[in-house]
Amino acid sequence: MKDIARHAGVSQSAVSFALNGRPGVSEETRDRVRQVAEELGWRPSTAARALSGEGAATVGFVLARPADTLGVDSFFLQLVSGIQEVLAERHLGLLFQVVEDVADECAVYRRWWAEHRVDGVLVVDPRTDDPRPDLLDELGLPAVVIGGAPDDRHPGLSTVWADDAGAMASVVDGLYALGHRRIVHIAGLPGLAHTERRIRTLRAEAGRRGLSEVKSVTTDYSDAEGAAVTRRVLEGVAPPTALIYDNDVMAVAGAAAATELGFAVPADVSVVSWEDSALCRMVKPWLSALSRDSVEFGRTAARELTALLDGGSARAVRVPVPRLVERGSTGVARGA
Amino acid sequence: MKDIARHAGVSQSAVSFALNGRPGVSEETRDRVRQVAEELGWRPSTAARALSGEGAATVGFVLARPADTLGVDSFFLQLVSGIQEVLAERHLGLLFQVVEDVADECAVYRRWWAEHRVDGVLVVDPRTDDPRPDLLDELGLPAVVIGGAPDDRHPGLSTVWADDAGAMASVVDGLYALGHRRIVHIAGLPGLAHTERRIRTLRAEAGRRGLSEVKSVTTDYSDAEGAAVTRRVLEGVAPPTALIYDNDVMAVAGAAAATELGFAVPADVSVVSWEDSALCRMVKPWLSALSRDSVEFGRTAARELTALLDGGSARAVRVPVPRLVERGSTGVARGA
DNA sequence: TTTAGTGACTAATGCGCATTAGGTTCACGG
DNA sequence: CCGTGAACCTAATGCGCATTAGTCACTAAA
């Protein structure tokens, strides 16, 4: 800025006013300063800006997953991509960190907060009994929870969520209409808010229809567990006629396992994946899947966070209910 | 720091000396200051540190991919995970950005540099005729190129690379030994350095053995193109007996396409994937794949970058040659 | 007894920006 | 002709830290 001031023949303050749209300089001078700044390729030092109270111009994103669990998962990359798109417009940086568990994640938030490193954070994989909302409230760190249900106890946090309950209800509706009465839901990690929501909804739906042979089994989202659970339930007595998998990886692995056991898909057993991706079109038959726009999900979350940073108040935003894309893996229940 | 100074009954300078291990304070005072800092949960403001010449304590990572291409790809997430692991030890942040193309990527580097936002960057997907090394040289931004071959013209850049040439040679060796003479390599994006290296090596190996029916076809890495190219080459006259795919997504899609066309794997056509992941074990038969440790790849790259930041000189590090994991998709060539 | 030296600390400065408090000039009204 | 305000600009300050240049007391050497 000193250089710009010298080149333009004005004081540093004038440069600051000119470049930040503050009053106090003539339009003429403003233009001249702008031009010089342009020529010099000047960009404000984020450090200096941050130091003089402008915030860090950075948003944090922590992914709490053991390194070996980071497998084939298109969701996060797409989510991040959407987040970026919105943040980039505002020249906000995304500070990304992978940690082992939620405790480490909390430590990262504390550190970022103490270091004034981020202006806000995006929280994923909310859990039942989650320590993070309390912490973020305590720290006063603006935050958007992605995938959590609206939560009255944390009025400071925004929430961007998909209606899992509604989606589950519609999936069960569809399967029921096809004659399915024995349904197993191969769920994701226990303790995750959306896992629990889906499980609760499935139970409620089953109860409503008087279906006793409907249950959920939790897993770690891996192909291995997806296949293992599939084998276990299909080898039992009165095996299910429909399987709902909480992600695409397990759905594909599960469908393969079923086929190996001699169960034809969808003649003997229908398969639904709760995540749509190229994976679902890599097996025969193609898997019916709940499709949602993860990139848009990310955009929405980022928009909520920037709104919060702009001083807006927190709110809960519901993204469209995932849509069931019927492909070849769902059909009429055997014997129905 | 002012608070700490007050609580400990010393000057701010003393606090700074004490906490940074500088001489000028007694051990007794140092301990007291440390303790007070601990109690107050103090962490230095990164902005202030950066402003007083300590660097931004941040490393940049740009992924130049159109949003819709960010599909099922375990490589990057694993790579980032490994990078993180090393950076976290040093309390270095990772600034992550997704952009459309290399031109945008260069713009991001320029901006980061001007804003003093990062101390160094990690560059992925190096290309033939890549503008990035020149730019980074010009900016004087420490950088590690991931996946590029050593490059004499940029003595300032470190390189972490895998020996694609060696791996390709060994794959061709193996296939040749199994009697394969007609081999098609379904390569990735043209222009990527490693794509070109593999193509060149394949051609050389074919030439050495006098094989005329060996070729490479470039794609965009998508399952769709993988399948399309597979169909095209298998439907031609004298179809290949072995297919080498540059990633797991195409390998799986290609294997499925081959099966659909009535080509049994591996009886009629052998399939090798250049990327190993859970995907390769989701189809029957399981795919033989070149396996490498992406997490460790990331760790190595991050270590090289931190070495550079510590003032070390640039070097080229070769990671172990990917190992071919023989599974069910490779076999003796029909008629051999 | 003086002097130099050393250990332990404080005061002062600068990093690059935003901002607040002052200045100077000019036009206009009384 | 003075006072007054507006328009435009400059000087000075602070953000939180690292660092350099002192300051002071006390000890060992001369």
Description of the molecule:
- The structure is a homodimer of 336-residue chains.
- Chain A is an alpha/beta fold and 336 residues long.
- Chain A has three domains: 42 residues, 434 Repressor (Amino-terminal Domain); 136 residues, Rossmann fold, CATH 3.40.50; 128 residues, Response regulator (Rossmann fold, 3-Layer(aba) Sandwich), CATH 3.40.50.2300.
- In chain A, 44% of the residues lie in helices and 16% in strands.
- Chain A has twelve helices and twelve strands.
- In chain A, the strands form two sheets. In chain A, strands 2-1-3-4-5-11 form a six-stranded parallel sheet, with helices on both faces. The first copy, chain A, has a six-stranded mixed sheet with strand order 7-6-8-9-10-12, sandwiched between helices.
- In chain A, β8, α11 and β9 form a beta-alpha-beta unit.
- In chain A, α1 packs across α3, α6 packs parallel to α7 and α10 packs across α11.
- In chain A, 50% of the residues are buried.
- At the A-B interface, α4, α5, β2, α6 and α11 of A face α4, α5, β2, α6 and α11 of B.
- The first copy, chain A, binds a DNA duplex (30 and 30 nucleotides) through α2 and α4.
Give the biggest beta sheet of chain A: 6 strands, parallel
| Strand order in space, largest sheet of chain A | 2-1-3-4-5-11
CATH architecture group name of the largest domain in chain A: 3-Layer(aba) Sandwich
Mass-distribution shape of chain A: elongated
For the record, the CATH class of the largest domain in chain A is Alpha Beta
The quaternary organization reads as homodimer
Order of helices and strands of chain A: HHHHEHEHEHEEHEHEHEHEEHEE
User: How much of the sequence of chain A is in beta strands?
Assistant: 15-25%
Approximately how much helix is present in the residues of chain A? 40-55%
* Helical stretch tally of chain A: 12
Average of pLDDT of chain A: 92
The largest contact between protein chains, plus residue counts on each side, is: A-B, 57 and 57 residues
Q: Rg of chain A from C-alpha positions?
A: 25 Å
CATH homology group of the largest domain in chain A: Response regulator
CATH topology name of the largest domain in chain A: Rossmann fold
Question: Spans of chain A of 5+ residues with little confidence (pLDDT < 50)?
Answer: none
